Amino acid sequence: MIGTSYQTDTLIVGGGVIGCAIAYELAKAGVQVTVLEKDTLGSQSTRAGAGMLGAQVEMTKPDPMFDLSIQSRALFPKLREELLELSGIDMELHTSGIFRIAVDEADRAALLDRQSWQTEAGQRAVWFEDEELRGELGDILSPTYGALYLPDDHQVRNPQLLLALAASSKRLGARFLEHSAMVCFLQDNGAIVGVKTVDSEIRADRVILAAGAWSGLIANQLGLELPVFPVKGQSFLLDSYSPPTPFTIYTHGCYILPKRNGQVYVGATEETRSGFDRRPNLRSLATLSSQAVQLLPSLGDLPFSTPLAGLRPGSLDGLPFLGSVPGIAGLYVATGHFRNGVLLSAITGRLIAELLTGKTPSVDLEPFSLSRLQHS
Ligand code: GLY
């Protein structure tokens, strides 16, 4: 039985970092917005993630995804100030840069090539030979094949970013409904006009699907093919008053991020065969911890704090889906951000808000549209 009924201008399904970033930008633009979250805000991959703003470290070719990532990364310093001012919560932007360590000759060649096209694209990327790297990082154990230093790839504390976005949106009038899962869409003549939850009907002029790894399942209710699937990532936190390095160190299959609160984040596996299982397991954490200790031996003495696991929203071509849904009026998508939800949250919020307030999006959305599936 339906208990309550709400009306909102825009309803966002999913209260992770993407949903909250959209809520913030829409609320800032004066749009009445409601966020529906089946669990608690940011409790899925937003919480498990590393918080890396790896616009250069995560991108292997010059393409629209690289441009989108660079633009999003550039928004963070101002976003941090705005959110701090509105909410008093600091996302803890950490600006020491990232070392991407080469693990073999082939990796070294690929990274040198990356240095060249990223530099040509106007980004800073500095090569360190093994000896120089040891001078900078101290106790790396195994010999490396050099490293690419990306001084402008930063990181934030993702749970803080989420809190700051949600609190600021609330201050601007956004409404958040937690522990409230959608059961189905409400439709009128084929257009989406809201959603039904277990105990309410929420009517909305438009609905944005931003439900991370669950987006494909939800879209399927409409017979809509949205190929977004879970890619599990396991990681863990170590306690430390003084992390062994101020830099993020990133190599094949393992990265290490010192956090401002003294903790050290070690990530992450990439598993496609775990379905929706979000439990950390011993085998993956054992492999990851041995890689981390091999890279930075002093990590082995730090107390273990928290195992983490989350489901990244993967897509077949690694690109997110952003924008309207062809053939379904009232429905928009902002999902499939795979390894880069935190990094792309700022630009996603901005682009979707631009789209919904009648402005021309500041980035061409064509490469991220759902219609690209028809051309592939
Ligand atoms: N952005 C890093 C990861 O997803 O593991």
TrEMBL record:
Keyword Oxidoreductase: yes
Domain FAD dependent oxidoreductase: start-end pairs: 9-355
Keywords: Oxidoreductase, Thiamine biosynthesis
Enzyme Commission number, as recorded: 1.4.3.19
BP GO annotations: thiamine biosynthetic process; thiamine diphosphate biosynthetic process
Reactions catalysed: glycine + O2 + H2O = glyoxylate + H2O2 + NH4(+)
GO molecular function: flavin adenine dinucleotide binding; glycine oxidase activity
Domain of life: Bacteria
Coiled-coil ranges (or none): none
This protein's pathway: Cofactor biosynthesis; thiamine diphosphate biosynthesis
Record bears the keyword Endoplasmic reticulum: no
Any Gene Ontology CC annotation: cytoplasm
Stored Pfam families: DAO
The name this protein goes by in its record: glycine oxidase
Organism name: Tumebacillus algifaecis
